[in-house]
Amino acid sequence: MKVKEVPQDDITFYEGEKRACYALNDEGKYVIVPSTGWEYEAVVNGLAVDELAAHLEKTRKEVLAGIRSPLYYHMESRQMNPQILAKTSGISVFRVKRHFRPGIFARLKPSLLASYAKALALSVEELKTVPDKSAGKGNDT
Amino acid sequence: MRGKATIHKMNAEITASGRLFIHQHAAHCESGVTSALFRDQGVEVSEAMVFGIGSGIFFGHFPFIKWVGMPITTFRSRPRTLFPKVAKRLGGEFFTKEYRNTQKGMAALRKALSDDHIVGLTTNIYWLSYFPNRFRFQFNGHNIIVLREIENGFRISDPILDHPVDCSTEDLERARFARGPLEPKGFMYWAETVVENPDFRRACLEGIKESCYMMLRVPFPFVGIKGMRYLAKNIIKSPDKLGFPEACRRLANVVRMQEEVGTGGAGFRFMYAAFLQEAAELFGSDELAELSREMTAIGDIWREFAVVSARIVKQRGQSEETFAKAGGLMLTCAGREGQFFKELHNVARKLEA
């Protein structure tokens, strides 16, 4: 890759940041060139992001329909899985999975809710509900 | 001469004790941090050089280890192996420690800063909110340098970004003590002393030889050139085996690992070519310079693979491009890299003699 071939496609999700790319200058020496993103990278990233967003939206509707507890939604929005959530909150995987059931989640002790809220960096109030709009918290990387 | 390649963008910063620190933009976090720690001790070494000495280049495709539901494909050595290798090969005394307790870990960080160290940390990238949202994902192997404490947080030199940033104490605590695969456990490291004029030649050769071994000789089907062939054949068969949408997901994931996660382009291949270019100067070796050009050419094919793959993904089967073509390009890469590492091994043995 030559310096002038380093992609500068101004990808919006870079939010003005730049990534370092290695490229050859006119004298054939390698230099680091900051890049504003590559359109092809945006394509593959977009696929993954859309998929996560669609999945999260599906989960949100399931929570509203009373199929899963809000805990499940917040776990997914933090890109965690039950194993990571269990370790972060200090609650066993078995119990975490049990708390994905809305009925059981609704009866949780405040101390358990506080553990989950801390693990997910949310307030207890936020933990108990899901957002009204599908936009979520914007953390849907 | 060394280090010239990396000095592109400079950012002057002051450390806790008022020393000058120049932030440099790097492609990869671990090599960027390691090179900065050495530079702070007065040993000029570029990111590419560190990457080569620490045997950073690699290929692996692990169909049975799933990460967010997809097999892991990697173009680099395992996280947290680069720094120890470079430290060993360049010599010096290094502080490394993990902490189980968050409070103790944070207190130790503050103590280290007040003792006039710049501190390398392993963190979870998801919790570092100074990154754009889409850069953030649950990955526990991101490395940063802490320069000094500021109000409600710390001043950070993150080599992935082209400028130093502020990070809140809360974010940093979460990032350092995140749980899950490859837990960082508050890992903290810095150089106490380094060897003043390290033997770069010997270090380069050690790095090169290990990379050649990893790429060519590991008796395991999923790593090195064998892994590349395995993945390429898998890609060619994937639309029939998995169905078109799933095949696209898998392919997109490979391209993300190659281009998106701070690789300096073409899955670290260009960075390795930059290393060989520096090494060629160091040894005055035309053969290494030639190999650097070959690696650049291989990197260009990897880029082409990314373009073809992205087109397949984007146009959902309407495109001229096929999985066979994408897999074929990867097979070409495998063939040429196989040849490349064989020659590199020979050159290294010759230079050693």
Structure description:
- The complex is a heterodimer of chains A (141) and B (353).
- Chain A is mainly alpha-helical.
- Chain A has 2 domains: 3-37, no CATH class; 52-128, 434 Repressor (Amino-terminal Domain) (Orthogonal Bundle).
- Chain A contains 7 helices and 2 strands.
- Chain A has a two-stranded antiparallel ribbon.
- The longest helix of chain A is centred in the middle third of the chain and has 26 residues, at 39-64.
- Chain A is elongated.
- The two termini of chain A are 29 Å apart.
- By secondary structure, chain B is of the alpha+beta class.
- Chain B has 2 domains: 4-45 and 92-194, Cathepsin B, Chain A (Alpha-Beta Complex); 200-352, no CATH class.
- In chain B, strands 5-10-6-7-8-9 form a 6-stranded antiparallel beta sheet, sandwiched between helices. In chain B, strands 1-2 form a two-stranded antiparallel ribbon.
- Classes of the chains: A mainly alpha (141), B alpha+beta (353).
What are the segments of chain B in which pLDDT stays under 50 over at least 5 consecutive residues?
1-9
SSE series of chain B: EEHHEEHEHEEEEHEHHHHHH
Which CATH top level class of the largest domain in chain A fits? Mainly Alpha
Which percent band covers the strand fraction of chain B? 15-25%
Number of domains of chain A: 2
Q: State the share of residues found in helices of chain A, binned by percent.
A: 40-55%
Q: What is the CATH superfamily classification of the largest domain in chain A? A: lambda repressor-like DNA-binding domains
Q: Taking Cα atoms only, what radius of gyration of chain A do you get, to the nearest Å?
A: 21 Å
- State the distance separating the first and last CA atoms of chain B: 25 Å
Beta strands of chain A, count: 2
N/C terminus separation of chain A? 29 Å
Q: Count of helices of chain A?
A: 7
CATH architecture of the largest domain in chain A: Orthogonal Bundle
> Widest sheet of chain B: strand order?
5-10-6-7-8-9
* Sequence of strands across the biggest β-sheet of chain A: 1-2
Structural class of chain A: mainly alpha
Major sheet characteristics of chain A: 2 strands, antiparallel
How would you name the oligomeric state of the polypeptide chains in this document?
Answer: heterodimer
